[in-house]
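Replying to the earlier thread about multi-chain prediction with a worked example.

Input:
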Amino acid sequence: MSEVVKKPGKIIIPSDQVYLQELDEFLEETLRNFSMAEGDIADVAISVTELVNNAIVHGNASDPDKMVDVEMILKDSSVEITVTDEGDGIDLSDIPDPLSDENILKETGRGIFIVRSLMDEVDITAGKDGGTVVRLVKKFDPVK
Amino acid sequence: MKLTHREVDGIMILEPRGKIMGGPDATLLHDQLHDFIKENKKKVVINLAKVDWMNSTGLGILISGLTTMKNNGGELKLANVTEKIESLLTITKLITVFENYDSLDEAIKSFS
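Result:
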């Protein structure tokens, strides 16, 4: 089984939910180094754990030999994050409206909706070599 | 997430701590609620005061808890919802689904 790889601004994890905690700790430490406020850090951590959870379960079908790659780049007063999996891609038309009466009590199906509400930009595209690439941008005022 | 529980005046208080983001978190609360049901303890408050944030997995866990208790003739209410979680409950309209109290005392009294 593969292992977690960490580099500055980048973490690559095997497709197992046990690594979500380690991912969150890495994210929060990196974002604090970017002088991001705690509320903004929480928004990013919620969104990225959401997407990585999707990538593990739906993208990579929990195959521990497939990896999820998370990269964070600081750009002026925003952070750009990309989450890339090695799965077969997702069909966004398959995602039902989580606010409709028939879906309100469903336990799943809110992830992308929440990410779109917390982030300033969300782009979901097919990767060059397969998989799904989700690009997020969160604007923020650095903590003095 | 860490999960503890205690009983106050016949009401079961569940107290998660940390962040609820998926993985092992999902089964912890589910299993505890089923233990309560087996013991015929069907009035439950989840005290969220020590939960920093949750993602959609966490919201799914709360919904699962609510429906599990209702389907077994019980009740599940929330107390001390933090600002970040209240904002998620609002944007997902789940704020309309849960009984939500500003303090644990208010949540406990609401059962009487």
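Residues 38-59 of chain A form the longest helix (22 residues).

Feel free to reuse this layout for your own posts.
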